[in-house]
Every structure is written in structure tokens, then in C-alpha cells.
Amino acid sequence: MLTTKYDMIIGAIYHPPKPKYRTSDILDHIEACVEKLATSSPDSTIILAVRWRTKWPVRTGSCQTGLTPIVKEPTRGNNCLDRIFVSEPCYIDVKVVNSAIKSDHKAIIAYSGVTKVNYSKVHTVRSFRQRSPDRYAHFMLQL
Q1: b/e for 5-17, b at 16 or more Cβ within 10 A?
Q2: Fewer Cβ atoms within 10 Å of its own Cβ: the N or the C terminal residue of the chain?
Q3: Which residues, in sequence order, are bridge partners of residue 45?
Q4: How far apart are CA 55 and CA 74, in angstroms?
Q5: Helices and strands in the chain: count of H runs, count of E runs
């Protein structure tokens, strides 16, 4: 089996709805960190997962960091609060799916390899005839 090795730098950021800092300050810090990582490890792929609880300045953020956003669908209602940014194309597909837990946020699945097929699962409740315990007991006695 042939395997290719390469370095990946993965980061995660949570930006709260009412931060105690200026949004421009964190964008400047992200830009400085990405620039430092790209300079110190130029062959590495940088992946940054972000939950930005206020309006993300996509154009400003992408231009400042040089990273490309790969999530194109809303992740909560009509808003795209969760994002993934990459320094180079490294995922074949990105899907936004309903979360496996009770949440109004959707989950993001980014992957490479074989294309995944969506299977819609529907929860259906059906009622069946009720059988009393006496009927089961009577049946068991006949055996």
C-alpha cells in the first residue's frame, strides 16, 4: 500500500457573540499566526475550523489570512456560523448535515476519498395490535 505523508497544521477558534476584545484584533492575530506558520513550515497544509458567533467578515478574513473558506452552506438557520478554512485544496467534498445530537446547529463533514452517499433516515412510529399478558401466558402454557 502506497501512502503519502505530509504535514497538516489544524487549529480551532471559537469567537463568542459578545467578545471582550475587538474583532479586528483577533483577525490581526489570526493573520499573524497563519503567516508565521506558513513561513516556518511552507510545505504544510493549514486547516482552521472556526465558530464565529457574530457576522464573519468573510472577504476581510479570507484576504487577511490567505486561507480559503470551503463551507458554502448555512450551518444554523440561514447563517453560516461554522466554517473551515484551508491553505490549499485538501478535501474532495464538504457536506453540511443535521447534527447527531439535539442541536439547531448542523455538522460539517469534510473528507477526501470515495464520495459518500447521503441516506435520509426518517423516524416513524407505528402502532401494532396490543396483546395482553394473559394471552401470552395462555400461549406459553400450550407449548
Answers
A1: eeeebeeeeebee
A2: N
A3: 8
A4: 13
A5: 3, 6
Q: How many CB atoms lie within 10 A of CB 75?
A: 19
CATH superfamily of 8-116: Endonuclease/exonuclease/phosphatase (3.60.10.10)
Report the distance separating Cα 94 and Cα 84, nearest Å.
10
pTM of the predicted model over 0.70: no
Q: What is the pLDDT of residues 3-61, one digit of tens each?
A: 566 788 899 988 888 888 888 888 888 889 888 988 888 888 888 888 876 665 555 55
Kindly report, residue by residue over 95-121, the tens digit of the pLDDT.
Answer: 888 877 888 888 888 888 777 676 766
- 13: number of CA atoms within 13 Å, CB side? 22
Q: In 3D, which of 32, 36, 30, 31 has the Cα closest to residue 13?
A: 30
Distance CA 103, CA 19 (A): 23
Q: Nine-digit cell at 101?
A: 445530537
Cα torsion angle, 60, 61, 64, 68, sign = negative
